[in-house]
Amino acid sequence: MPLIAPSILAADFANLQRDVEMINHSAAEYIHVDVMDGRFVPNISFGMPVCAAVKRHAQKPLDVHLMIVEPERYLEDFRKAGADIITVHIEACPNLHRTLQHIKELGAQASVAINPHTPVASLSEILGEVSQVLIMSVNPGFGGQSFIENTYRKVRELVELRADAGVNFDIEVDGGVNLDNAPLLVDAGVDVLVAGSFVFKSNDPVATIQALKGVETD
Ligand code: DX5
Ligand code: ZN
């Protein structure tokens, strides 16, 4: 069964405590926190204070996805704001190895993300340094976009790379996840499903999380 990480980007920001408590009471494993700076991506979401506010009510680990330039400047701040897993983008990190070491020194789990145009092979030298790899299945910046079909092939390639390297990390997919693609993603080898709009725009978010958790595979 996949781990589920609802993205609070799609929550009602005026009722954030209520929405975090909904996740607390659901079958989800993580709370996915999308940080955007208007530089790495063409949209601004929120920063450390909101992350810290979510943390005050969260009963599940915060999976913090940094879609920002120079993420190394803010690692300590996000760790202090309660990040348990910190994801940086390979496209934003000229010194990725150092950045991942820093995340681990801060006591968080290190995770790396790749955009749709970035091949999984570009991760080959740092696969032993991460506990999670995030494959973007939309172009980062906005919730509610449609899923890019190439993602299945990238997941399969990463599963193979992981086996060849003899290392272990979770494979997370983020963007456009719903009940149509979730079974295929889990089949391909995905460990963690991020879902924003599909959870929060549904009539019963707790039931939707449960449905994603229990997807049937072939
Ligand atoms: C996109 C973010 C995603 C987003 C997913 O840039 O990284 O986490 O919240 O939202 P949906 O599930 O609506 O595509
Ligand atoms: Zn995300």
Automatic annotation (TrEMBL):
Residues at the active site: 34, 174
Required cofactor(s): Fe(2+); Mn(2+); a divalent metal cation; Co(2+)
Cofactor binding description: Binds 1 divalent metal cation per subunit.
GO BP annotations, alphabetical order: pentose catabolic process; pentose-phosphate shunt
Gene Ontology molecular functions: D-ribulose-phosphate 3-epimerase activity; metal ion binding
InterPro entries: Aldolase_TIM (IPR013785), Ribul_P_3_epim (IPR026019), Ribul_P_3_epim-like (IPR000056), RibuloseP-bd_barrel (IPR011060)
Cited Pfam families: Ribul_P_3_epim
UniProt: substrate binding residues: 7, 65, 141-144, 174-176, 196-197
Name the UniProt record assigns to this protein: Ribulose-phosphate 3-epimerase
